[in-house]
Design goal:
11 strands; two-stranded antiparallel sheet; single chain
């Protein structure tokens, strides 16, 4: 499960300020364990949360800051770079590695209540309001053209912050 973040003015353009000026912050205390080049925009930054060796939090479309490299220890909220492009949204995925595979988990389900309080303050009352379950998505799949969604699909896809 990935969650996409779209700054104000997402559906229009050009963006002012440019999205490439938006600071991307580490979602957790941990260590940068991988930096993978994206096909089109920036890098994927993989953070292994401290104390959770079987977990990987992947932040997409990042232009890493100076000094951000594999092995860098980061703290939650630390700047790790800027958004890589004015042409794509930002997104995050959380994986739990299991014997023989992995499972994707909602980013919001991994947050402490204290961290989620920032979303409550912006009008989100329930973590599930920001996720589409596997059963819901299986019942209304999205079609893709390469790396792009062909359309928005039949389910509500966005939660607006106040």
């Amino acid at each position: 499960m990935k969650h996409y973040f779209c700054p104000a003015g997402c559906l229009g353009g050009p963006h002012d300020p440019a999205w490439t000026t938006l600071v991307i912050r580490s979602p957790a205390d941990g260590t940068i364990v991988r930096l993978d080049p994206e096909q089109m925009y920036g890098m994927q930054v993989h953070v292994q949360p401290a104390g959770y060796p079987d977990w990987d939090v992947r932040v997409f479309h990042v232009s890493p800051a100076a000094g951000i490299q594999v092995g860098t220890v980061v703290t939650a909220g630390q700047a790790i770079g800027t958004h890589a492009s004015d042409s794509t949204m930002s997104d995050v995925a959380v994986e739990q590695h299991l014997p023989g595979g992995f499972r994707l988990v909602s980013f919001f389900d991994t947050m402490t209540d204290e961290a989620f309080a920032a979303f409550v303050a912006r009008g989100v009352m329930d973590r599930q309001a920001l996720a589409i379950t596997a059963a819901e998505r299986d019942g209304a799949p999205l079609m893709c053209n390469g790396q792009q969604f062909a359309d928005q699909g039949a389910l509500p896809n966005w939660g607006d912050l106040q």
